[in-house]
Each structure stands twice: as C-alpha cells, then as structure tokens.
Design goal:
The complex is a heterodimer of chains A (about 200) and B (about 160). Chain A is an alpha+beta fold and about 200 residues long. Chain A has 7 helices and 5 strands, in the order αααααβαββαββ. The chains are: A alpha+beta (about 200), B mainly alpha (about 160).
Chain lengths: ~200, ~160
C-alpha cells in the first residue's frame, strides 16, 4: 500500500543537494497532483461503514477527538498569532494573499489540566491587564501606541509569566520584559530577513 | 456533525488537505488515511467550525496528524495499524511538543522559511503558488521546506 517512491521522495527531501533540479521538479509535480476527490469520498464512506460494523469506533473516535481538539486548538491559536504579526509588520501587503487574519475555532473539548485563555484580536492593553493582574504585576509602556496593537494568542495562567513573555516576544516589533514587579513593553525596530 | 455537511467539507477541502499530508508523509495511502481520520473525527464530534477558519482548522489538523505519525515513528506501518491501535493516546508532553512546532519554526528559521512553511502546511499552497509569491524557483521552495521539515523531524524525535 505504501508509495513505491516513498523512500526516494524522503531521500530527496533530506538530501535535495544530491538531486538535479529536474528530479526535484518531477517530485513536486507528483506531490501537487490533484487527487480524485469523488473516489476519495467513496473510499472514506466505505471505511466509515467498516468501522461502524466492526462495532468499535466509539471509544477510538472519542479519545482521538479529544486529543485532536486539544492540540489542534493550541496550534491553531499559535498559527493565527503569527498571522497577526504579519499583519502588524510592514510586509503585511505582500503576505495578505496567504496569511489571513483568521478567527480561532475553539474546540469544545478541553483538558482538565490546562485552562488556557484565548485572546482573539485583542488589544495588548486588554491582554496585559488580565495577565498582569493574575501575576500581581504592573504594566509600563515605553510607547503608548503598543497598547492598541491586537493579537491572537493563548495564555496559560498555570504557567509562569516567563512563558507568556517568551511567547509575546516572538512577535516582531515588540519586546516585553519583567523587572521586579513590572512588565515593561518596548516597541522595537523590525529587523531585515536573515540571509 | 451532520454527514451531509461533512461531505460538503470533504469535497471542498480534500485536495488541499491531501496535498499537505502527502508532502509531509510522502506516502499516498497514509496521506489519504490522515485526511480521512480528520473528517471521521469531525463526523463523530461536536466541534463548531467557523466559516472563515474552517480551511485553516482542517489543514492544521492534517499537519498535526502527520507530525504525530512522525513522532510515533510509525510512518512505515499500515494505516490500519494506526487506526486500530490502542496505544495512540497522546500524552500531554506529546501535545506540548506538537503545539510547540510553530514556536520552534519561528525561533530557528528565517522569516522566509517561516512564510514558506506556513504557506505550504497551514494554507495548503502548491509549490508553484509559493514560488510565485516569493519570487523564487520551485526548486528553491523545495529546499526551504526540506530544511525546515528535516529539522522538525529531528526535533520531534529528540
């Protein structure tokens, strides 16, 4: 059932320098070929039917759904957070075609261990009001304009402030730090792409 | 979720979802299975999908499933083994690691690498589309993605 070329494809992915441009072009064409969606749907229906008759889908689906809901939710928030960065950055126009200001579809299922707070298109001012309050910190902006910047981000109150700071500092143009009992927010220049 | 709605989603998004899976797993059957699993989960579940983010949700789900397979080092196994396995309950540590992929990519790669990664694996763009947006050749796109994917695989296995 495995693709006969899988081993070759993987080698081409791991060592592209060992292949000619023509060979790489060929594999890309193959990977991008349009699948037969109707046939895939029929296959999917048949598979579902088999599972149902086997009488064991419930437990598997139930557990898988919970797992998928949790990590898909977390990752989706991360992805949309980066989308927001791109909008904030001066490259926004160029990226607009591929990076959208998406809204998170929050899964209903969550774990009992983690109770993250999802901020969706929320101003930094509002985000920090909640976060700072939770950690009993005050907030200091070196540029008040930063207050109105909006973000998509998930905050895990169960984790320390450093985790949140680290996550926020992944946004270009913004630098957060904690000094004693204050969160300092600086607006910084965006660097050029690395070579 | 209603079957008829799933069918509509399937027909609309299958091609891109398959593309994402295939370019990570490099195996047709495994890629089909991953996409099917995502829809099966939706069918059995009660997730609410917002129209604006449905595609993003589905593609991210596919990508996660693929990396999960890599994480479990089960790429060489039949899809049925994955489906019937009783040992597929991800630990919170695994979920954390998967959730960390975006941050990992952001911290280890250039902005261009990150853009190309997102275009391919979050938005399901073709190599051709990415090349056009970035103004580079398809081969260059392949090399960018190879570098990122190889690194992620090592990261997941570490």
């Amino acid at each position: 059932m495995s693709t006969p070329n899988k081993k070759l494809f993987r080698d081409m992915q791991e060592h592209p320098e060992q292949y000619t441009e023509s060979q790489l072009e060929s594999v890309m064409t193959q990977l991008d070929k349009e699948p037969d969606v109707d046939a895939a749907w029929q296959e999917f229906e048949a598979k579902l039917s088999q599972r149902t008759h086997a009488g064991k889908p419930t437990r598997w689906y139930s557990s898988m759904r919970k797992i998928a809901a949790v990590f898909v939710g977390i990752l989706l928030v991360s992805v949309t957070a980066f989308a927001t960065v791109n909008i904030v950055q001066r490259r926004a126009a160029k990226k607009a075609e591929t990076v959208e200001n998406a809204v998170v579809s929050e899964p209903k299922s969550t774990t009992k261990v983690i109770s993250p707070v999802h901020f969706e298109n929320t101003t930094l001012d509002s985000i920090l009001a909640k976060v700072a309050s939770h950690y009993h910190l005050s907030v200091n902006y070196n540029d008040k304009a930063a207050k109105s910047m909006k973000f998509y981000i998930t905050w895990h109150p169960s984790k320390g402030i450093s985790h949140f700071i680290q996550k926020m500092n992944m946004f270009d143009g913004l630098l957060l730090s904690v000094n004693q009992d204050t969160i300092h927010i600086e607006v910084v220049e965006v660097e050029e792409d690395k070579p | 979720m209603k079957r008829v709605y799933i069918q509509q989603l399937f027909k609309q998004h299958y091609a891109k979802m398959y593309r994402v899976a295939y370019s990570i797993l490099l195996d047709e059957q495994e890629s089909k299975d991953v996409v099917s699993d995502v829809f099966a989960n939706l069918l059995q579940g009660d997730a609410m999908l917002l129209p604006d983010t449905t595609e993003h949700y589905l593609l991210t789900s596919v990508r996660n499933q693929c990396f999960k397979r890599i994480r479990h080092e089960e790429i060489k196994h039949q899809a049925e083994q994955f489906i019937s396995s009783e040992h597929q309950v991800a630990t919170s540590a695994e979920d954390e690691r998967l959730a960390d992929i975006e941050e990992y990519v952001a911290s280890c790669f250039t902005e261009q690498d990150q853009r190309i990664f997102r275009m391919r694996y979050s938005y399901g763009c073709s190599y051709e589309e990415i090349a056009a947006v970035e103004g580079i050749s398809r081969v260059a796109v392949w090399k960018h993605l190879s570098r990122v994917l190889n690194s992620i695989k090592k990261h997941l296995k570490s």
